[in-house]
Amino acid sequence: MRLPKAVLFDLDGTLLESEPLWLQAEQLTMAQWDISWLPSDQQKCLGGPLERVVDYMHQLTVSANYAPQPTSSEISNVLISNIVHLFSTTEIEWRPGAREIVLETHSLGIPTAIVTASWRVLLDAAIGTMSAHVGNFTISVAGDEVVRSKPDPYPYLQASRLLNVEIGSCLAVEDSPTGTISAVSAGAPTVAIEHLAPISVPGAVVMNSLSGRSLEELWLLARNVESGSKRVLNK
Q1: pTM recorded for the entire structure
Q2: Which domains does the chain have, with CATH numbers?
Q3: How far is Cα 159 from Cα 164, in angstroms, rounded to an integer?
Q4: 10 or 133: which carries more pLDDT confidence?
């Protein structure tokens, strides 16, 4: 098979250069409780799901003995409000090579899915901007719509079920260790774009950019990984 029958894309950090917006939203959220949020804190939460980020933030407020102690729900509401505002008012940048791969996939008539740990309200805030650039994605799976989120394989298996395509015939494209584990565990040939956190997941091909890559090339590389993490130098 020269090409995948479907392509399953992660969102934040894979398709969109949205991690800086997440960092800003997280910093704004924690500032409400006088707590500094560092890039190292963001890295610990990379790949979601949102519940894990909120739990981590809540633990920070507990450790800081902040009074009155905010609930996880209060923190979640503030974080969602901040990120939705930033997504809606900021021109989001595409990750290198990501827009081109999506356009190529759509031009070939291959179904596409966004599989993200972000909640539906955040995903919808991004999809409108993205579709204006590359056309509509076939389906999308949000983090608050699955019974188990990444790193569990469920989100990718759910995407393949919705597309009615065997998971082994789907190419998954990720950028975090959490998401890569999810995709590989589901049985999808997987390309991992390493840029914010090191990725060493058996069964994934790891590179630092999609730039200059074709869909056929990504599919060939992902299918030829037998064991370990195969690293490919970018052109």
Answers
A1: 0.83
A2: 6-17+93-231 (3.40.50.1000), 19-89 (1.10.150)
A3: 8
A4: 10
